[in-house]
Amino acid sequence: MVFSKRWLYLLTAAFGVELLFAVEARWGRLTRVLHGHGDAAGVVALLGLGWLVMLLVFTVVIARSLSRARHSLHRQDQRITAVASTTREWLWETDPEFTFTYHSPGVEELLGYRPEDLVGVPIRDLMIAEDDQSQVDSLAQQGRGYPSGWEAVERLWRHHDGHAVALKGTGVALLDESGRLIGYGGSRTRVSDAAQAQRGAAAARTRVKQLLSTGAVDIALQPIASLSTGRLAGAEALARFHDGRGPELWFQEAREAGLSRELEALTFTTALAAFAALPEDCYLSVNAGPALIMDPGFQASLRDGGVPLARLVIEITEHDRIHDYAALNTALAPLRELGARLAVDDTGAGYASLSHVLQLRPNVIKIDRSLIAHLSSDPARRSLVTALVLLALDIGATVTGEGVETPAELATLVDLGVDAAQGYLLGRPTTDPGSWRAWPAASWIVPALRDPDRTTSKQQRA
Questions:
Q1: What's the whole-model pTM score?
Q2: Which end is more exposed in the chain, N or C (fewer Cβ atoms within 10 Å of the end residue's Cβ)?
């Protein structure tokens, strides 16, 4: 640009000098023509001078236009440079095959790469998806099909350290003067935490609603053994889901979606079918939150649905918030009168479980794994378990130790007067009805006390 401008100025000056010499050389003829006495040669001289004047004016106009364009481009380049260097967005360009050709400094803040490190890198190498190529093809189709390109398209991108980053991007196809595609360009910025949370909640709600519509829940049972008889006392029902994700995640999503009660109702109802696999002298323990227990429809289904309530234990956990103990006790009263029992799970894990015990006066107190671990070697834990056993005697409840993993823990529970035990030492949760039916004939306590090979390294609660 500087080279062209300099030579254009020299050409303008040359035309100006040429015009002066031409006027000087032809002054006489021009004077005669201007006074009406010119001949053909004078007219030609006048026309030649006019042509030189036109060339000079044209050159001056071009020089001024070129200068203005140069200043405009310079200002535009500075604006682009200022935006690229100060914005937190990632400005980018690619060739027609979606290989990066330019990055602004914003890519380092968003993805941890230096701009020069990504030049020549295919865009699909940074995308995280089951089918990155389909995403690239989709963007290319949008870019070619719409002059305005695409906007607010969200994708997961791979950060330099490997974790996924959600970015929202805009883009447009870049065309040359003839309309031929020469690449793509646009910008990307981080998706806000609020937007991600909103979309995550919507996706979770969709998953939970689909689960509720299909009823795709399995039930696993874990045996609970009597420490006085060594026989099967009952079993706890635990939900299992076909996608392999844990119950905690499913119920968390249900709570966030406002469908917690519905999912609890589905798992509770599904679990009731396990009664058929247990002998009549064994109970089935099933989790239910306060909202489900106080639901009139749920209560009616238990009262009028042929459920053997005398063999049903309803478990409330440490994690269930109870805002009105009086209302919950009122809702439980008819069921307890018909034989249903109440258990407080995770007792000792926190203050809430102790409040549950004092306010609800359960039939079963289930001691949390946090107190059972290292019970045989920790006097403080033994004192707490002893206190819970004495509390159970005062309110007419029984005590079950959860998460038993070692023979030493089991032996200590026997010594402290705990009524029943549950844990991996005795049996893992299983969805196999054949295993359920074999449990009543098994002897649980003596083999567990004598066989150290049944010790497990870590209890994983369902």
A1: 0.62
A2: N
- What is the three-state SS of the chain? CHHHHHHHHHHHHHHHHHHHHHHHHCHHHHHHHHCCCCCHHHHHHHHHHHHHHHHHHHHHHHHHHHHHHHHHHHHHHHHHHHHHHHCCCEEEEECCCCEEEEECCHHHHHHCCCHHHHCCCEHHHHEECCCHHHHHHHHHHHHHHCCCCEEEEEEEEECCCCCEEEEEEEEEEEECCCCCEEEEEEEEEECCHHHHHHHHHHHHHHHHHHHHHHCCEEEEEEEEEECCCCCEEEEEEEEEECCCCCHHHHHHHHHHCCCHHHHHHHHHHHHHHHHHHCCCCCEEEEECCHHHHCCHHHHHHHHHCCCCHHHEEEEECCCCCCCCHHHHHHHHHHHHHCCCEEEEEEECCCHHHHHHHHHHCCCEEEECHHHHCCHHHCHHHHHHHHHHHHHHHHHCCEEEECCCCCHHHHHHHHHCCCCEECCCCCCCCECCHHHHHHHHHCCCHHHHHHCHHHCCCCCCCC
pLDDT, tens only, 181-227: 888 888 888 887 676 666 667 778 888 999 999 998 999 999 999 99
What value does the mean pLDDT take over residues 347-357? 86
Mean pLDDT of the chain: 82
pLDDT band at 171 (very low <50, low <70, confident <90, very high): confident
